[in-house]
Amino acid sequence: MLSTMKLDLKKLRIVHYPDPRLRKASERITEFDGELRALVARMQELMESGKGVGLAAPQVGVNKRLILMNVTGRPEDTRVLVNPAIHEPHGSAEAEEGCLSLPGVNVQVRRSQSCRVTAQDLDGRPFEEVLEDLPARICQHETDHLNGVLIIDRMGPSDRVATRRTLKALEDSYKSRGPAR
Ligand code: ZN
Fold it and tell me: Residue 129 catalytic?
């Protein structure tokens, strides 16, 4: 499935708002092949170099349901979730979030404090896990990306005012340079 996309992995870059690929609903992954592993490896590189705690495939311009999470920043702690789905959200907590696709934007986002996530691993084996606090937050943030949702859709009125200039600058930069290639 991925191979039909003729991905040139070395050329994958983090795409920035307002790239339209960040706004598309991503497709389920049905083939657990070497190309999926290669995509994950490239995403891990980009997540580490950006010092991100998570990365979703649409953020590298690939509209597939795949997310990476890393709470500690240690490479061996990277978790890969294919086709993740969030269930049983509980509680509510607000915290500041950033996003590698929205450089310079940090906003308060209210999310469920805990949730259960079901997903598949790189071999297609299903697993599930209960997440709380930061891992739950990252998982919700990254899963949002698979549905075309960004943190700026969830921010409150004061952050809307505070980020207006930064968002405008990102929009202007996209217009002048075009999408990342
Ligand atoms: Zn993000």
Answer: no
Number of structural domains in the chain:
1
32: domain CATH number is 3.90.45.10
pLDDT by residue for the chain (181 residues), tens only, comes to 555 556 788 889 999 999 999 999 999 999 999 999 999 999 999 999 999 999 999 999 999 999 999 999 898 999 999 999 999 999 999 999 999 999 999 999 999 999 999 999 999 999 999 999 999 999 999 999 999 999 999 999 999 999 999 999 999 999 998 765 5
Handedness of CA 29, 34, 40, 46 (dihedral sign): negative
Cα 157 to averaged position of ligand 1 atoms, centre (Å): 20
Residue type, 11: K
- pTM, entire model: 0.94
Distance 98 CA to ligand 1 centre (A): 7
Q: State the sign of the Cα–Cα–Cα–Cα dihedral 111, 116, 117, 118.
A: negative
- Ligand 1 centroid to Cα of residue 16, in Å, is 10
